[in-house]
């Protein structure tokens, strides 16, 4: 006979309900306003999206490009890498929108440069291409419909500390607000540092020289 044993800790935080429970306990108020906690969670996620850049946030998408500009994904935060599919693949060089337009002036051809403008990807020369983007995506927001995400599963302490910092600040408890904020930011910093280590390992990075895209930069 096989007996299943639940080895997960009783106070494990796996979803938004667990997070609310822990926050209320730390606030010494089991009936603390749920809407205030949900608002603090949203504010905390805004901070996470500004401060974090780690491999877990990366997403890859391949799009067919037929025009000069294409909408970026709705969860787009920052581009890491972009290339045009081919044999071999052709990395696109980053430029500003002004340089892109003044340099290529809408000419047709195989895309080799890009810019980001008004949450749209602008490429040049303009031509049909399959473009793959690796980008940092927004952390999926915690809601009743989406009760968990990778950030809560891997770093519940960051959620707890940042939400507490926001709530304590609202009620004027500056000391506990500052303490929780400093601990939350320390966790975010450690996540970023671990991400760098996981990506590159312990070997020193090899510097790459600057590369001219086309024409004179202005």
Give an account of the 3D structure.
- 39% of the residues lie in helices and 20% in strands.
- The protein is elongated, with a radius of gyration of 23 Å.
- Helix 1 crosses helix 5 (156-170), helix 2 packs across helix 5 and helix 5 (156-170) runs antiparallel to helix 6 (174-200).
- With 218 residues, the protein is of the alpha+beta class.
- It has helices spanning 16-26, 34-51, 97-104, 150-154, 156-170, 174-200, and strands spanning 58-65, 69-71, 76-84, 90-91, 93-94, 113-117, 120-124, 129-137.
- The strands form two sheets. The protein has a four-stranded antiparallel beta sheet, with no helix packed on it. A four-stranded mixed beta sheet has the order 2-7-6-5, with helices on one face.
- The termini are far apart.
- Distance between the amino and carboxyl termini: 76 Å
The best one-word shape is elongated
Question: What is the strand arrangement across the widest sheet?
Answer: 1-8-3-4
Alpha-carbon Rg, integer? 23 Å
Question: Which residues form runs of ≥5 with pLDDT under 50?
Answer: 1-10, 211-218
Helical coverage, percent range: 25-40%
Largest sheet composition: 4 strands, antiparallel
Number of strands: 8
Structural class: alpha+beta
The number of helices is: 6
């Amino acid at each position: 006979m096989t007996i299943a044993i639940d080895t997960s800790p009783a106070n494990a935080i796996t979803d938004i309900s667990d997070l609310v429970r822990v926050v209320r306990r730390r606030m010494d108020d089991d009936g603390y306003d749920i809407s205030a906690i949900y608002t603090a969670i949203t504010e905390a996620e805004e901070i996470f999206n500004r401060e974090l850049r780690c491999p877990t946030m990366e997403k890859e998408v391949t799009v067919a490009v037929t025009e000069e500009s294409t909408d970026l994904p709705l969860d787009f935060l920052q581009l890491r890498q972009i290339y045009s599919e081919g044999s071999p693949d052709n990395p696109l060089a980053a430029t500003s929108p002004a340089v892109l337009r003044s340099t290529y002036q809408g000419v047709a051809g195989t895309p080799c440069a890009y810019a980001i403008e008004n949450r749209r990807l602008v490429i040049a020369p303009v031509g049909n291409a399959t473009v793959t983007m690796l980008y940092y995506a927004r952390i999926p927001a915690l809601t009743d419909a989406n009760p968990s995400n990778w950030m809560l599963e891997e770093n519940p302490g960051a959620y707890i500390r940042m939400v507490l910092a926001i709530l304590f600040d609202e009620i004027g408890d500056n000391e506990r607000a500052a303490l929780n904020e400093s601990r939350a930011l320390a966790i975010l910093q450690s996540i970023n540092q671990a991400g760098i280590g996981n990506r590159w390992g312990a070997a020193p990075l090899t510097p790459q020289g600057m590369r001219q895209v086309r024409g004179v930069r202005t």
